[in-house]
Amino acid sequence: MIAEDAVELLFVDVCRTLARAGFDIASVNAGEGTGLRVHREPDAVIVRWVPGQELDPAGRQNAEYEGIRGALRQALWEILTQAGYAVRTDRLSGEVRVMPA
Asked: Taking the CB of residue 27, how many other CB atoms lie within 10 A of it?
């Protein structure tokens, strides 16, 4: 387990890295329900994507967007590993777990 202040620094660095790569990011606590979300866990930073309604105007309850999720996971993996982080992706949850290298 890494120290709480180290997780906070990792969170800030990951957000900056993703912002420089062109992503709009909001904290999970920001109250917004869609888009790229970044939050802290005790030993890592988690990045996940929640699709917006404008992506699926039909409002399908079971739309999975696996193609988009897969492309996004790959892009996040590429960006974050090139920035020097240890990254694990989870296809089932769609989450990308970022740890210090």
From this structure: 13
- pTM higher than the cut 0.85: no
**How many Å from the N-terminal Cα to the C-terminal Cα in the chain?**
13
Per the CB < 8 A criterion, the answer to whether 47 and 14 are in contact is yes
Each residue's pLDDT tens digit, 41-67:
999 999 988 877 677 667 666 667 888
CA torsion through residues 29, 63, 91, 85, sign: negative
Q: How many other C-beta atoms are found inside a 10 Å radius of the C-beta of residue 71?
A: 11
Q: Please report where in the chains the tokens 């917006």 appear, as a residue.
A: 52
- To which residue do tokens 């202040």 refer? 5
Query: What distance lies between CA 10 and its chain's CA centroid?
Result: 13
Report residue 33: phi and psi, to 5°: -90, -10
